[in-house]
Predict the structure.
Amino acid sequence: MKTRWALSAALLAVASAGAHAQDDAAAGIAKFREMLADGNPAELFEMKGQELWTQKRGPKNASLEKCDLGLGPGVVKGAFVQLPKYFADTQRVQDLEMRLITCMETLQGFNAADIMKTAWGKGEMANLTALATWVGAESKGMRFNLSQAHESERTMYEVGKRLFFQRAGTHDFSCATCHGTDDKRIRLQDLPNLTKNPGDGVGFAAWPAYRISNGQMWSMQLRLNDCYRQQRFPEPKFGSDVTTALSVYMGVNAKGAESIVPALKR
């Protein structure tokens, strides 16, 4: 009996030490991000995006200053925390990136299909990421409040919810495998539960974000593409209804959460 109790105590001690080590690691990561926050490299992308917004470019030699992101032509502040949403002119629910592409095509004369085929971080796709970073930063500190007034917005939410829990691929994963319950971690980092409001600046409220590990600025669409890659799914095409629907699902669930875009990520 004494041996059994001693073994149990030892196992508890090991588990406690492991949990303590994980807590220390998580705190260290948080401290590292805090130290970098004042010099967040995302600010460079933000500055570039602001310049691109007012710069006359494209076949029509026009700026994006008349772009309607949902609050009226040229209104940027507050737009990010209401996206994705339904737009009557395209008759589609659009996220920030797809709405910016619509403006680049209609106002500046760029070819939307060509932009969407461009590799991540190259050419106009790189410009698109910078624009999304600046637009997102203009709503920093504001609370998410995505609309569900239009039937298409409600449909996208339901589609996103089903996609979130869809298990498939070689490993039978789903988004919910990592983000469907509380208190999960991977590589000593907390995984937010995205089936509900995970809190300020977590999950949906943190992208676009600068990835410290690879020195790249990642948009929400790229983040979702990489999630699919890690699940061993085929990666969605840029502008896919899949990424839009998932963004609607997470965005609606994040109602009231404060945006910290552009954030810092591992």
